[in-house]
User: What shape does this take?
Amino acid sequence: MGEHRKAVKDLSVALSIENSNVECLYLRASCYHAIGEYAAAVKDYDATLDLELDSMEKFVLQCLAFYQKEIALYTASKLRSEFCWFDIDGDIDPLFKEYWCKRLHPKNVCEKVFRQPPLRESLKKSKLRKQDFAITKQKAVLLVAADSIGKKIQYDCLGFLPNRRQHRMAGLAAIEIAQKVSKAWRSLQAEWKHSNKSSSKYGKRGRRRINIPSQNRGGAGCSTSSASETSTTYGITEDRSSNRFMMSWQDVYSVAVKWRQISEPCDPVVWINKLSEEFNSGFGSQTPMVLGQAKVIRYYPNHERTLDVAKAVIKDKLYVHNKADEIINITTEKLQDIMDAKTCSDLYNIVGEDFWLATWCNSTAFEGKQLEGTRITLIKTAERGFDFAIRTPCTPSRWGDFDAEMAVAWEAVCNAYCGENYGTSDFNALENVREAILRMTYYWYLMELSPAIK
Assistant: This one.
């Protein structure tokens, strides 16, 4: 997978047989888009939009073609700029992103959102030359390193096929993150050494906590201005008065998000807290393990474990929620039956209706506070069919909670590495660093971007 040029050839053969096949037109446009052939992509997107369709499923592809054409035009307008100026989250209207993620009819967007400039204007302004595919020695070294690192993201699980493009982009993202984080850590380590020298001068040498300034004191989606000057790269700041280079947790993850947006430009990967006010109604992702009577090959291996977690949560809380979010209390008699349940059908028959329950996790930012983790839902779809899924909601209040956790977790990573352990490669000495990174990753997976991410 990930061979877009080969896919273009195959799709072109299919279109030579049936030139009005909306799926093939849409997919070929997506492939052209991914490899930077924007004129061909826009042409195929337009052809998709011009078709007369006979089903709602095909109409959804037309809606997506509209949004992705706009993204292709936006990307083309940035081709002669530095990569840091490619900023879908900052430049694209929140309403557009909202409708794109939800695959809604673009009529409202057309009326309220400024459209991207036509491709000919971007080509004229940028004076784009033919893409240079020559691989220099420096490029080859970089790509070999990126491919080697990127392969490590591959899931060893049924249903997840290796994708060379995704691997390479993930590797390039990891390298860029390492470059930027190492610069920030050098600055923090210099501060740590300076503070220790000052302390030892007065006989008070000891370990110091390195404080990472928050860039989000105003709550979800807010930032505060300060004397520091914002650079053009991912919102990373550099304090000119102290030559201190600072990164927030969101700066770190924004690098990965941008590479993910480039790796598959037709996936709506955006920061949820930068969507429109519709975000207040909530967003979320779904990981289905059973759909009707079908086992979802990617996620079904988690079925038994999830069923056990659901039973454990019910045992602890003694209630679940129905579709109306009302509490269903679990009696002692029912609880024993639930503990003995082996299947979705068993569990549903005991509760007696569609329901959901929430796992929890402990806060690191606020001692003693519990946060909602994710939700496990069980819905009957037919006489013998069930939808059994893990659903992670995201609302502004939840975003605020996990933003605080991520900030504290990132500070812990920096504190663990930028003191006495700075520069070491000793595996045992880095135990606290590993633990801090795992904690940060744990909270990250309980946050949400748009449905396409993770």
